[in-house]
Amino acid sequence: MKVDMHVHTLKSSCSLNPIRLLKKLCSKMGILPFICDHNTLTKTDFGIPGEEISTDRGEFIGLFLNEAVNDRDIFEAMDKVKEQGGLIYLPHPFDENRGRSLCRYNILNDREFKKRVDIVEVFNSRCRDNRPNEMAYQYAKMNNMLMGVGSDSHFPWELGNAYLILEEEFDRDNPKDFLRVLKKNNKSGFKYYGKLGSPINMICSKISKKINNSGSLRLPKLKFNKDMIRYL
Ligand SMILES: [Zn+2]
Ligand SMILES: [Zn+2]
Predict the structure, then answer these.
(1) How far is the CA of 214 from the centre of ligand 2 (A)?
(2) Which bound ligand lies closest to the C-alpha atom of 15?
(3) Cross-referenced InterPro entries, in alphabetical order (predicted)?
């Protein structure tokens, strides 16, 4: 089965992935998505609920959540995920091009932090080049952490850019069962598909955020006078 561990819906202001379309695309491509909106828990009838949580020390993802986590303190937020039986997944931890990546907050080597980590995203399709992905891979290997991948899809055309290839199904309500299948995948050669998307996707996200935050797309008002019309 194919699993994309990092997908957004239009509940994230930087995304324009309509939930119904996402559902259709996922079933067409045979992908099970982990839905990880920014600071919102979006529950769907087809994906695994997660949340990309912004904290005072960067962002991480909580997976298999029942309740949203709003804590600003990173350790409190991580503990809230664990208290509800969820998993902690580190998205694009070494991508310096993104303001909320963990590498910018001097936390990745903190012992208390590392103790809580379940999975590292070692391939994210929204990185500009592969260097941050390679660094994440080395980090996971060095620390003996499990590895996962995600497209970080914010738009329909990004879906399918990355997914794990799991040899076995898992119980969708049971994070431990997912870990069991993921461990098998990691041990037997870590099968996944991953390609980098276009950097234009990041610009599209910025525009989408602007539109969403202003409530509407405001175009500058144009006033015409006779002189201008002559030029049209
Ligand atoms: Zn986003
Ligand atoms: Zn994301």
Answers:
(1) 21
(2) 1
(3) PHP_domain (IPR052018), Pol/histidinol_Pase-like (IPR016195)
Helix (H) or strand (E) holding 73: none
Q: Could you list the pLDDT tens digit for every one of the 232 residues in the chain?
A: 999 999 999 999 999 999 999 999 999 999 999 999 999 999 999 999 999 999 999 999 999 999 999 999 999 999 999 999 999 999 999 999 999 999 999 999 999 999 999 999 999 999 999 999 999 999 999 999 999 999 999 999 999 999 999 999 999 999 999 999 999 999 999 999 999 998 888 888 988 888 888 766 554 555 555 555 544 4
Distance (Å, whole) CA 228 – CA 140: 61
**Cβ 151 vs Cβ 123: under 8 Å:** no
Counting ligands in written order, the one closest to the CA of 5 is 2
Q: What distance in Å separates the CA atoms of residue 121 and residue 6, rounded to the nearest whole number?
A: 9
Residue 76's Cβ-side half-sphere holds a number of Cα atoms within 13 Å equal to: 8
Distance 124 CA to ligand 2 centre (A): 9
Please give the tally of structural domains in the chain: 1
| Domain at 175, CATH number | 3.20.20.140
Q: What are the DSSP calls for 30-66, one per residue? A: TEEEEEEEET-----SSSEEEEEEEEBTEEEEEES-S
Query: Contact at 8 Å (CB) between 106 and 94?
Result: no
Q: Is-above-0.85 flag for pTM? A: yes
Residue with tokens 């208390």: 112
Q: Which ligand has an atom closest to residue 59 CA? A: 2
